[in-house]
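Quick note —
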Amino acid sequence: MTSFACRKRKFTPRKAGIHPPRFVLVIMPLRILICPNAYKGSLTSSLAALAIREGLLLSLPDAEIVTIPLADGGDGTLETLVEATGGTFHTATVRDPLGRPISARWGRLGGNQSDTAMIEMAEASGLRLLNQEEYDPRVTTTLGTGDLINEALKAGCTRLLIGIGGSATNDGGAGMARALGAKFRDKDGRELPEGGAALIALKEIDRQDFAVSSTVPVTVACDVDNPLCGAEGASAIYGPQKGATPQMVSQLDTALAHYAEILEKTVGRSVRDLPGAGAAGGLGAGLLAFCNAELKSGIDMVMEACGFEEALKHCDLMITGEGRLDGQTGRGKVISGVIRKAKASGVPVFALAGSVARNTESLLRPDGLTAAFGLMQEPMPIEEAMRDGYSLLREAAERLGTVLAIGRESIEKT
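Predicted structure written out below.
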């Protein structure tokens, strides 16, 4: 606790020569950096940061707190980057994961990046847009993401930044490409229906009318490093979250493997095993193949835009968090990014999560995590926990602040 709770100050008596200079321990207000991800389905990263701040101040009223809401390419990336750069939001009517018309936002970054459009695929193709009974990754589509890209291009944007987390889809980005002019045909020359399962019948991809020019730089903010297919691929790892049964997972993985073969024949490049190709149900692979996109760590991009490293230099400890800490946390998520940076700077990191999977804390400790705490003190239905996420997070932050305050008191007594 002493590493972040106190600082040494040199003290010299007024009458020089009476005593040699000595050091005294001065207890200073804690300087705390709060930088959570969104708590999926419950809180945006901005609301989460506010809840943590309120809770801490209840037990550490003199704390000096800086909040930097973060995102990793998924939900909240649009809001975080547009606000961080002083950009503007725009609204368009697009198609949701089931092809229904909805209103969705895209952004234009500010400052010297005003030619850059920020597209968050979750705005149009996100799981949060569906009721649980509608989850079916065999038929959901990224059409709406392609619609948003079209809107940005029509508005004159010449660079695209696309965040691809939080998807409801498993179509390899085929819907996105179709919205931008590509055609997907079976052996009889008929257009395929939407969804990942239909790709098993794919024979030919016609990209003659594809709307994104090869001169348009496309950067993808990606929150995972999974390949397209296999045991660590899009279908196996993320399909169950989107409603896939084991039988569906096998069906979708086979369809994406076939799709990858046709993609390679079409563009002359294999993308199925590239890190991040499996992100967003394979949208990563689609953007790599159709747009020659560059995949980058979403959290690293957001931290750079938000001035995270500068804030890190001036804090004693950091508090982060997200909905769940599990085996995927270390694969490009927000917490993975911040603990890596904090470890390099020697800053302790505490995480507040909706739930913490068994052994996850010990797995992340070598990467820089000091400790992790779940929000719930007693069992409750997940729906209730998500509904009450703000108060649960605030109370957990207050409890953490109490522990930190006790540590300070112990130092003062020694």
